[in-house]
């Protein structure tokens, strides 16, 4: 009755529903009205054009960081370093944005490219260490996150500026911001980056599923021995996978640097764009389309949550709990699979 | 005659397939009863029903004449049924004794009385000639020993009826001999054994009666004394099977592969191939006979480009292929059916179709300018699936879902289809049933007759004798003698494999 594929699609959907349901129960237990809570969340995300714009703005970096994690996972690698790659991408894009005076047709692409390259380089290091020395990428990428955080702060403070805590705003020629989009959405920070993110999802799908390179990358991800036997270069593909994953993450940084904020400031901690990318990829089952949908959900929850305390008196942390629960349900997909199969049996 | 076990009219379904239907199995006390069937026939399923792991849809089970319902393995244990699974279930870091008593530990005060347990294990082991060291850690002992631990585990729990699921599949010939001894001493003590296997030789050697299953259906039970391997094989596959593959004499032509003075090290850096010389000509099958661990794997990996050669040369025609990359070796006309099909031969999580182009995906018509052409890939895959009789729901099924024999047929189809000059076939029929073995042998001979050079590596002497036109005996990293199969026998080959060279006086 259910094909395996249908089950794979059902699992995230059921997980989301269960997560929302548990959130409702938690609200009830703590004396909040769940209907009012979720209504506030809905209006907070889609209630008017401004909220919609902000939601889509939040979705943009999530798509890219989700793609970064998903791409690595599809090629057998666990890239925990997306967070750091976002940082270096953000800094690089802003740097190019403030340092040059160029016509937009050159300046914007150059700034976006700088972000991708910086992220790619940040992925290259753990990639080459794994390929050449067999060092596990998880350990290296975690450490690289901290290096990225402190290095970015150093660059902002002492290289791009003279001891300031934030850079100047980037030149308008390097900006993704759009008067038109902002005007349509009551001056939300929605920017053209959303198109870049959606385009990159397409790129990931095409690269992995339609090209010989993608075939090699997936093959190496599944079985290095067989890939080597078949004449593929295992080391080269591992490095390349990390480089591409890092480039996606770097672009997520550019979304913040060139789109949402237009500058980079000294940060005391992580942005969580990269870490949330892990959750997005997991919920999206590591597929391009899945990641886009999951990013929409996460963006909606995050932005909608901002409206909950004022309108329904529900703390925003509730949404964090719901997100965590969704992830737990997806992670325990074995359980859901089992329940689905049981229903299937009884239905027969 | 009262039966210790009676399974009557058993039917067991899995989503989409009937794994067992209409099967009857009656085991007498003190007999070794064979359960024979091809891979996927439903042998393990039937035994899992008996052991309480699966509930049958139909049929009844009687133990010592009494109707029982075996709802889980604990019930089976209480009824005196013990099972040694195809895949062992041992805790690696525990000792033999700890593994055996796990779940039914003798207690003293609140703690496990490991001394007492060790003594009991030792006694049991001696009684049946199992010869295991109760204090050894599982990870330190051989697969054969681990199997004995599994047997002891069932005995410790008081098993009267032992189910052994393909116990010989993982054993060396020597270990198989010892296992047979153990089985004999078990039945002498009044135990009954159900032995699952698809090896006819073993059945003829140790079993009293044999029940045959074909494609999930019970075919019947025969007395081993009244039958012969040919009859058993045709009962099992449902058609006539020939054992010694028909082949015309070889017609060797020019030399395709020539190896000179080759040295290869293994992973630990120890020389495993030590100055080896070998030639394979077009139109002949050269079989490498030897005891595992004499450098055969290293030799093959070196030819295939998977392992570095230290010195010496490997030539295909006039082209030196020593230390070329696997891709270059493939392109120069070598196909390789690897020993370990799961590790090397297939990407198990890829569809069968994509596995069919694992080496050629980057060439036309399977891709163009870096973009895959799945239409052409699956067209090719469909052709190969049909030609090589790969039984799979379709080309989009993951390779993992196929049985071993069909996985192997897929690999062979892929490797042979590239029209290589040299085919390296390393243990091409390991773990397969007679039907698949027959098919693969036929294909290899066909390729020989098309003028390809075939290098066969096998640890089954029968296969070497049957298939080779020339046998090269490998010992301690070198070819120590070459013989024609018609000029030797398994006895002499065995001696040569142990390092004796009967042709030359004095040996090596
Ligand atoms: N748990 C299971 N779920 C679904 N199908 C199964 C399961 N176990 C076995 N099968 C199928 O049942 C058939 C018989 O399998 P099995 O009993 O393992 O065969 P054998 O042990 O004779 O090789 C095969 O087609 C196999 O794929
Ligand atoms: Mg089995």
| Structural class by secondary-structure content of chain A | mainly alpha
Shape of chain B: globular
**CATH structural architecture of the largest domain in chain B:** 3-Layer(aba) Sandwich
Q: In total, how many domains does the architecture of chain B comprise?
A: 3
Strand order of the largest sheet of chain B: 6-9-10-3-11-12
Main β sheet profile of chain B: 6 strands, mixed
Q: Per the principal axes of the C-alpha atoms, what is the gross shape of chain A? A: globular
Major beta sheet summary of chain A: none
Are there runs of chain A of 5+ residues with pLDDT below 50, and where? none
Helix/strand layout:
The complex is a heterodimer of chains A (348) and B (508).
Chain A: H1 4-29, H2 34-46, H3 49-74, H4 82-99, H5 104-133, H6 137-160, H7 179-184, H8 193-210, H9 212-222, H10 224-229, H11 234-260, H12 273-283, H13 288-305, H14 308-312, H15 317-331, H16 333-347
Chain B: E1 3-14, E2 17-28, E3 32-36, H1 43-50, E4 58-63, E5 66-68, H2 73-78, E6 81-84, H3 96-101, E7 107-108, E8 111-112, H4 114-127, H5 143-156, E9 161-165, H6 173-188, E10 192-197, H7 200-206, E11 209-214, E12 217-223, H8 229-237, E13 255-265, E14 271-281, E15 285-289, H9 296-304, E16 309-316, E17 319-320, H10 326-331, E18 334-337, H11 341-345, H12 352-355, E19 367-368, E20 371-372, H13 374-387, H14 404-417, E21 422-426, H15 434-449, E22 453-457, H16 461-467, E23 470-475, E24 478-483, H17 490-497
Parallel strand pairs in B: 3-10, 3-11, 6-9, 9-10, 15-22, 15-23, 18-21, 21-22
Antiparallel strand pairs in B: 1-2, 1-4, 4-5, 7-8, 11-12, 13-14, 13-16, 16-17, 19-20, 23-24
Helix pairs in contact in B: 14-15
The structure holds adenosine-5'-diphosphate and magnesium ion.
Q: What do these coordinates show?
A:
- The complex is a heterodimer of chains A (348) and B (508).
- With 348 residues, chain A is mainly α.
- Helix content of chain A is 77%, strand content 0%.
- In chain A, helix 1 crosses helix 2 (34-46).
- The radius of gyration of chain A is 21 Å and the shape is globular.
- The termini of chain A are close together.
- The relative contact order of chain A is 0.21.
- The model of chain A has no long low-confidence stretch (mean pLDDT 93).
- Chain B has three domains: 3-237, P-loop containing nucleotide triphosphate hydrolases (Rossmann fold, 3-Layer(aba) Sandwich), CATH 3.40.50.300; 242-333 and 421-508, Rossmann fold (3-Layer(aba) Sandwich); 341-419, no CATH class.
- Chain B is 32% helix and 27% strand.
- In chain B, a hairpin with a 2-residue loop joins strand 19 and strand 20 (371-372).
- Chain A binds chain B through residues 210-215, 218-219, 222-223, 225-232, 344-345, and chain B through 15, 304, 306, 325-328, 330, 336, 338, 343-350, 354, 358-359, 361-362, 367, 370-372.
- The complex binds adenosine-5'-diphosphate (ADP) and magnesium ion.
- Adenosine-5'-diphosphate (ADP) binds at residues 14, 17, 19, 37, 39-45 of chain B.
